[in-house]
Structures are given as C-alpha cells and as structure tokens.
Prior knowledge:
The protein is of the alpha+beta class. The chain has eight helices and 14 strands.
Amino acid sequence: MDGVSLRPDNLIESIRAGWHWWLQELGQMVPQSVRDAVTMNDAVVVDARPADFLLVRRRGQTEGTIARIPCDALAGRALRLSIPRTGRRWRDDPVILQLPQSDALDRTLRLPRTARRDLDNILRHEVVRQSPIDAQDIYYDYRVAASSAGNGMLEIGLRIARRDSVDPLLQLFREAGIPIAAVEFSGDLAHADGATFPADPTAARDLKLRPRIVPALVALVAVCALLFVGALYLRGAWTQADLEARVDDARSRAVMVTTLQRRLDAAHRQAIFLAGQKNNPAAAAVLAEVSRTLPSDSWLSEFELNGNEVRIHGTSGSAASLIALFDSSRYFTSAQFRSPLNQGMSSGLQVFDMSFRVRPQS
C-alpha cells in the first residue's frame, strides 16, 4: 500500500466515489415509475432549432410535445402563451433552454482528483486555454465523468458555447417573462455539475432542489413513523413497569395478609385449646410437665392430647435434643419427630413437630 493512497483527500474521494456507485446500483433496483416519482424530473424543455422552437413537457422519462413555434417576431408572445406561469413557485414546471449540440465545443480534461474541492475556480482559468474564443465571449458547462472515480484523475467533460448565440435567446425569454432554470444541449441525460450560463437564480435553485423534495419528505415520514413507534414502545414500557409495580405491591400485601391470617388462626386455636383445658385438669398437668421438660430456649405453638398420646408444635434452639429429653423423662416415652426439622423465622431456631406417649403412673 503506497503513501499516496493513504492521504486524507484521496480517501475522501474514494469514499465519495464508492457512495455514488452504491446509490446508482441501488437505483437500478427501483422500478422506473418509482424513480420518476422520487426524482421529480418534470420540466418544460424548449429545443431551440435554427427555424423554430420545439416545446416539450418532460414527465419523468416520458416527453410530450406542447407546441412548435416559428422563430419570428411573434415568438416571444407565442412562448408566453404556450408556457403559462401561475406565479406559484412550486407549481410551475422549470423551463430548460436546450441548444443544438452543434453549438457546443467539446473538450475533455484530466485533472488530479484533489482538484474537485476547487473545481469551479480551476476550470475558470483552464477554459481560457481550451477555448479559441476570448473568455468574455463564451459560456461553458462541465460534467465530471462517473468512470473517473476509480483512478487517481478526474475526467472532466467541458462544453463551450458562444455568447452571441445564447444571449439573444435568453433575452427573448426575459421579454416573455419566462425564467430559464438551466441551459443545456440536446442529448443531455442529466444536468451539468456546473455552468456559467446566465440562468434565473431562483429557477436554477428550484431545479436543483426539486429532486430532493420527495426523498426529504419520505425521510421525514420515516423519521416520524420511527418516533411514533418509539413513543408507543416507551408508553407500553412505562405502562408495563407501572403494572408490574402495582402487581408487586399487591403481591406483598397479599403475603402480609396471609401471614397475619395464619397468626390469627393459630391464636384462635390456642385460645380454643386453653379454654378447653380449663375443664381438663389431666391435660393441664401434662402441659405443665411438658413445659418443665422443654429447654429454656424452646416455645410451644400447639399442644394436642389424645388419650395418652401427646403432639406438640413449636420452635427451639436445641430441637435435635428433644427426643432424648422426653425419652429420659419419667413421665413420657416413645418420643419421635412427625416431620423433619425446619429453619425458623429467627436465626438459630428450628421448627419441630413431635409426638410422645404419657407413661402410666403407678
């Protein structure tokens, strides 16, 4: 890789050339009707011939003849009637004056690629060397050949026309009140990249802007659509977040209510049990002995006496030793856990569920 290819200006030119090539390739994939609608290539072309003017209305890639006007004293009035102007800037088609190709002197120039940045000034001096006529007596336009994008040089197509063959025609259109947007030559398929023909500034600017209006509107619609979809997405996300927050709050409230309900049910069962034990002295004596047997770090939540079988529920810091404690008691025997030990609400406590039998007393 040589040092020249790494220069920033060469890199920029390569990127620009690749971009234009890519756009052209994409454009060939679009249907012609769509391309015509997007490019807004509508115009009224006045073909200036030696004996008459041929007026053609261009619509995309199609053309239709409007009128053929002889080059006589009434040509200006006939042009004004054939190309009516509404005075509304964007409703009137631009008017292009088309000269015979024979009126142009063609020259081909090869310039360094870096010349593109100041091409107008360079050609203003270069045309003096290329024209056999004095610079003050000529007009010219130029095009940069697309085929020159891949090498290190720019290929410029330069066309030179005599002022004395162009000015009378432009004066005729000025008298008819018809602004000329551009001066071209027959056979042109695209507008020039630059020119010195004295076209009407407003009409020339509109001619350049028209092809960009529809793409700009399409891009604006696409941006608005993306913004609308984004707004819908954000609104949905905010709504979902709000609903999730409400569901989480309701879930936490439901858990709290369930916990309180369980505590209330347990307290209710204990109240019923205690009320029933007031009339059962034997049960009270067994409960008192169970309380004395349990370690000091143990608490009962349920006590159940069926005959000589006792079942208790509670929490204890030494739950694993309860079996040995009750089996070694002279009042109880056959102690066993009815379910595995579980971790309690507080650290170091375990929930137990156990049963044992009351020893017969002699």
